[in-house]
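Re: folding output
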Amino acid sequence: MKLHEITLVVNGVARRTSVPARRLLSDCLRHDLGLTGTHVGCEHGVCGCCTVLLDGEPVRSCLTFAVSVDGQEVTTVEGLAGAGGLSPVQRAFAECHGLQCGFCTPGFLCTVTALLRENPAPTADEVLEGISGNLCRCTGYQNIAKAVHRAAELIAEES
């Protein structure tokens, strides 16, 4: 099997690895780079568990070939926290009980981080639309939506 050398900037660190042409980004992150925070749920791009930020935009890592993102910047859930601790989105999810089993949480955290970067003060409808691509089997979404609004407040307070 032919391997392709790729370099990704993952969570701010340049990482080089060799992957087969059909290696998914989710598998590259988890198995080749040891970043197991990115979860794989449906493997069809439906559930959103595998969502990471690619050059700041949310993408389904289970639908993205690793070779196609050579040279790009990937932020996983492990890279969301800053030097001072948890990000505002992470703090809000914890504060508002926006997680239960935690399986969907990494995808939600990446999705919401991008959502609030694009729209720092979303309406209730915009929050629901923004998280609609991520599935949760535990929470019923109420506390997740509350966490998005709380994260927006925390980000505004830090500005």
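--- second protein (sequence, then structure) ---
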Amino acid sequence: MKSFFALALLLWSFSGLSQNLSSQELLDNAIKYHDPNGNWEHFNDTFTVVMTMPKAAKRTSSISINLPAEYFSVTSTKDSVTTTYALNKDKCTLTYNGKVLDSLKAKDKNMTCDRATLYKNYYSYLYGLPMKLKDEGTNLGKVEKRTFKGKTYLVLKVTYDEAVGSDVWYFYFNPKTYAMEIYQFFKTDEHGKEKPDSGEYIMLSEETLLNGIKIPKVRAWYYNKADKYLGTDTLVED
């Protein structure tokens, strides 16, 4: 009987530990799961993502991120059109169906270097999570236990300095492994309050190794409002 109570106390202690983690401890555990060798800082790889959406043609994108060289490119094909946005440090190159565009022709195709920067930030952020939560301007909020679609998670609230962004994000981690399984964001009003019917949530499933980092292969996007399905990004292994 004594050993039974000792075991129960031990199990209770581990359970309490997972529920009472600080935000920094939870993030550190999640990064240890996804990037145990600290490879994100030196990330240099090319990967392919296929986007499927209801009632729309699929889009296939080849994405190159080389953080040490400050290089990024995304080449996307949809229907008969292929576009490339490339940033090599401060140099921007825009290509349409294999032809490099000057500024006037790029404008005609609605292609801009600002959009290239937007794509760079977008893909680097999503595929660099949760490591990107250590970036300057990121504010870690409290950790809470939350049930989403019948499963319990440790949830980390994240806000950003005004210069970075105004959305409020929630990251859902498996309480046993600390794998990131969902993230969700909400827009805010002029007073900084969340708009409950705004934003989206993204369900993550399966995993692959990319530069030694555990990366979710499938991202299914939904509106927070009415759980409306938007589309799915699938990382395709070559």
